[in-house]
């Protein structure tokens, strides 16, 4: 027998008396006749819904203000009152209580979404006792039965008045309060320590998550230089006098511009002699130089000499600095920019000169990236096969594909970001999987860029197809039906992934909604604050799910969880702040989401990062283990002990 049992036996040997609330108290409502402006500039304090919902006793520091005239007839709270929330989205959270355990020194009002209970003067009940009592399981079970609804559960005051509560003698109430206060203090202190540790771990997790997803020095950064800065020598050649036959026909290869045509030079049509070399401006050009035609019909065309040779004065010969650039990379860049270089020509024949060549800009990635770029462009078929990129059988189509991929590869080299796809590249992206030519080609480009550059910057529009949600209101929810996700639940009820929905709708509603498929991302695009807007989850269920308005579906061939983790980073939040619109209602429109830039590593690296972050998330968020589990166990231990003390037999 416990100490409390002994007290009960001593003070009420026939058991504790239970009485209906309607017989021992009066009920009163909250504020009435108020509009939005009354809460903007107020002169009187009031208890908010949240203050009641979140605390077993009313917190004075959480009061807010409302405008109330002196002659208004409004109810105000008093010492000993029990305040009750009138409704909630779930039955389990409806009718939560908070006791007034202080003596108000002024009139303090109650919000309109709650009601108050004031015990009759002849009822002996300590407010500190009632704050525990109304949160106990025995009373909560009765309260939950008074709530009804589908999307929102409302408390019936008529039913509430029939709830029975125990009224033990004051001596027993006070002893129970002493015990529970002490135990509450112990649990609160322990929970605070655990929560502080959990907060620290979450901050640590966020730090490592952002660091892991920043890639810092790994992500490609564009650095531009001029050809003059990446060359050890840029020279032109010369032409020996045609009047002296002895200057020609020797052993020295001599190149003219008409022989320059995007190829490697292993021999020349003409040769000159040592005498011709000595008596002209012709000079030796080292093997593996990049040679540009400056004059005439071939102006702007390039070649690589695979032998030491000399050239005429119409050739610009670039000997590269091998510590900065690979000669074949320079060759490919100039070949790709043939039209640009040619357009810089002057005069009727559009001739270019050494000054123009020296000042021509070239992006200079690392030698490793240059090497892989050259490998792609020199061995396109082999690399495509290794990366499982399909190749057309027809030579003409294969050449077009080569030019397409070269353009994407060298454009990324120059810009450092893979941009949103255009309409042509989106063709054929049917979700049934039968024709996905546009998507497949896009994924091929991403795979190729990842192979060359490693982690790359991409716009979300380049890797995601966006579908805006439609319809779906809370009144459409039913107890059983087809799975649906409401935008408000994304940032209030869901984590970053879900296998089951919290809500359902009838078939008629479901059929009209846009659908997310397994592994699609669902993002909330509307909120009252920037922090919540853009919150997303990965749908991991086995069936399609209906998506309501103020949200959008992101379909991607990348790792969806990787993207959602990235959306949580500080890097993404900074961008989001610049892309959202609105003041009171914040909108993150799909057309703006598409502009956001993320860092995308190869798909296998994405999977590895997700695996690491999943483990971190489990330790900081999963209620089945780690600190969250320990905090939950302390709370359950407290509730069990409290309910045991307050479980009086009538």
UniProtKB/TrEMBL annotation:
Residues 422-439 have a biased composition (Basic and acidic residues). Residues 15-198, 223-395, 458-633 form the Type I restriction modification DNA specificity domain. Residues 420-439 are annotated as: Disordered. It comes from the Bacteria. InterPro entries: Restrct_endonuc_typeI_TRD, Restrct_endonuc_typeI_TRD_sf, Type-I_RE_S_subunit. One of its GO terms (biological process) is DNA restriction-modification system. One of its GO terms (molecular function) is DNA binding. It holds the Pfam family Methylase_S. Keywords: DNA-binding, Restriction system. Belongs to the type-I restriction system S methylase family. The methyltransferase is composed of M and S polypeptides. This is Type I restriction-modification system S protein.
